[in-house]
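User: Could you check the structure of this?
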Amino acid sequence: MSLFGKLSGRGKPQHETKEAAELSFWQDEIVRYQNWYDGKLSEHFGHKSPTPEQKVKVASHKDSAILTWLNVHQKAKYLFDLQLPPNAFSGGKLLDIGAGPMPSAVAFEDCELCSLDPLLGSYVNAGFPMHYYDRVRFVAACSENMPFDDHFFDAIIAVNSIDHVNDIEKTSAEMRRVLKTNGKLGLHIHYHKPTQEEPIEFNDTLVQRLFGWCGGLKKIVELQSKFGYTAPAGQSYALWRNF
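Assistant: Sure, the predicted structure tokens are below.
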């Protein structure tokens, strides 16, 4: 039996307990975003509480805090961690795998953006607003079985997400299927020992084996830190791109 078919101590498949832990983290983040927005949390992931000029203001206080965090942190994070300019995917179709509860890839301009995550419905129920993002196509689906035609996307990115998937072999095969020939691939990968939420232990050898089908893919940089966070000793973040 594979790792993902085994049962946890509570009698649930591990992928179910993993998803519950991920959802719990993001629910707690909503509270932290609001405290940060209000100045009750002086700093969050290296960002001081927003100035009045930085604050987004919509009808909902919660939504205002989340949208402000997207602008201040998430957009900058994607550009920084992928080491790309905002026009990197101009004119193309971009897929963000494991996008989470916010479409951070809106940092990239003039492209058709698809945000894929299996927990999108749960994120909406938790309070994350999706209705503000007119240019984003949200798809609630697993990376192991993506509802797209072959060779549909000009580019695929995954930012600290592919170590969360349930079956990385199927995910890699699906990415190869939906990416155009000579399409762009950008992977920001957390190298670490397996955890409940991040069960895959990545290293250079595994990346090369899984994504060797992508011509020109190479490791751009490997650092102990990512945007706004420094990992514990023994962990790192590797950026792989074929462009």
